[in-house]
Amino acid sequence: MSGDSKPIRFGVNFLPNHAMDSLEWVKVAEETGFAIAGIADSQSLYRDVYVIEALVATNTRTIRFGSRVINPMTRHPAVAASAAATIEELAPGRTMIGIGTGDSSVDNIGVRPAKHAELAAYVRAIRELLQTGESIYNGGTCKLTWFRGRIPIYLAASGPRTLQLAGEIADGVVINTGLTPDIIRDSIAQVKIGCARAGRKIEDVDMWWLPLTNVGPDRGKAVDEIAMTLASAGSHLSRFTVKGKHIPEHLMDKVKRLGARYDSAQHDKPDSSNRELIKELGLLDYLAERFAVAGTPKDCIAKLEAAVGAGARQFWMSIHFDDKARFMRDWARAIMPAFR
């Protein structure tokens, strides 16, 4: 294990299929010792992220939580800032704002994802609104009159340019590039490039890695249960560009076909047709090796130890299969003690 003094932490992320179920999942996460809970934002597929956050804020006591992630295309920064400030008012010091370019949330309303410059402008506008009450956005003045404070802003990043942007402007980053040691080391290097541009230190950025996780007695079954989420991670490899994303040349065409054929209306759903797509394309094993921490407790611990050795220390896991409470209790019992 790494000699880094930063503790190993685990978080969970949920798709809000039902409001009260989502609350119960976060309550189990708090009870079992997870450090942070994310609520996904995809208005066409799931319940509203901020309604769920309000439930979480008023029914939990210690766990950090926030959006993972909103995007610049579906929420004006003044709307996003006011919503986040309201949640912060309900749960002071426990909230965060996760922001990305837009995935199923934009695909399902016929809108393109945000561009890199738009993402940067959006982060700046939200931060200025929260701290000063005013910002210029898309050439117009927008205001937030009733809140003054700082809420941590995290960027979701699956490529080098966004990793660098996170190092430059974000309080934290959710890194969805993979869990193999070489990819982890390169992702950290990309964040450092952004930090250097802004005169910051890597320690200024709260880095969380996004493994796709499952624990059980049989690795094959554990991997199959998260196949729909592996398909989602694989589809990101060809979004915008394949440059700098560590895709093996012999798989490049298959990865591009996955991106072109991925069904965003079935995004991360347990019965998603995307499960069969990655099997048809012969990508299941590759995506599992790159993105998954799945299998027996011994399998999971070994994969995490290799990731920790490469510099990853915080793991924010997406839990999109059924029986989430079982998973969290099994993870807390069988995996967490190995990293205390």
Largest sheet: 8 strands, parallel
Round the Cα radius of gyration to an integer and report it.
19 Å
State the end-to-end distance: 11 Å
Mean pLDDT across residues: 94
Question: Which strand order spans the largest sheet, edge to edge or round the barrel?
Answer: 9-8-7-4-3-2-1-12
Q: Could you tell me the CATH topology label of the domain at 160-340.
A: TIM Barrel
Walk me through the topology.
Blueprint lengths: L8 E6 L4 H14 L3 E4 L9 H11 L4 E7 L6 H14 L4 E5 L4 H4 L8 H17 L1 E4 L2 E4 L9 E5 L2 H10 L2 E4 L5 H18 L7 E4 L2 E4 L3 H7 L1 H10 L15 H10 L12 H7 L3 H8 E4 L1 H14 L3 E5 L5 H11 L6
Parallel strand pairs: 1-2, 1-12, 2-3, 3-4, 4-7, 7-8, 8-9, 10-11
Antiparallel strand pairs: 5-6
Helix pairs in contact: 1-2, 1-14, 2-3, 3-5, 5-6, 6-7, 7-13, 9-10, 9-11, 9-12
What characteristics describe this protein?
eight-stranded parallel sheet, TIM Barrel, 14 helices, single chain, globular, 340 residues, two-stranded antiparallel ribbon
Can you characterise this structure?
- The chain has 340 residues and is of the alpha/beta class.
- The model has no long low-confidence stretch (mean pLDDT 94).
- The strands form 3 sheets. An 8-stranded parallel beta sheet has the order 9-8-7-4-3-2-1-12.
- It has a domain at 160-340: Alpha-Beta Barrel (TIM Barrel).
- The protein is globular and about 55 Å long.
- 46% of the residues lie in helices and 16% in strands.
- It has 14 helices and 12 strands.
Could you write a compact summary of the structure shown?
The chain is α/β, with parallel strands linked by helices and 340 residues long. It has a domain at 160-340: TIM Barrel (Alpha-Beta Barrel), CATH 3.20.20.30.
